[in-house]
Write a structure and sequence with these properties.
By secondary structure, the protein is mostly helical. The chain has one domain. It is elongated.
């Protein structure tokens, strides 16, 4: 079945920016019939932000090894 291509708002790119890969998947399934190019780009953007987040987390743990010292909280 073919669907007519409709131009969708660029605001859909905010979903993967704020929610990462989950937002990219949601945007993909909402936009896939109306604007497949934008849907694919939202998915790629979500994957890219997830990858960047993982890399930043690894770098922070490597450069600041004492950051997980329990935060001096006594219970």
């Amino acid at each position: 079945m073919t669907y007519p291509k409709k131009s969708r708002s660029n605001g859909w790119f905010l979903l993967p920016i704020f929610f990462g890969v989950i937002g990219g998947i949601i945007a993909f399934f909402v936009l896939r019939h109306d604007d497949p190019h934008k849907a694919r780009n939202c998915l790629y953007l979500g994957i890219a932000f997830m990858t960047i987040g993982i890399i930043v987390d690894i770098l922070v743990v490597m450069y600041f090894p004492g950051i997980d010292s329990g935060f001096n909280v006594n219970i």
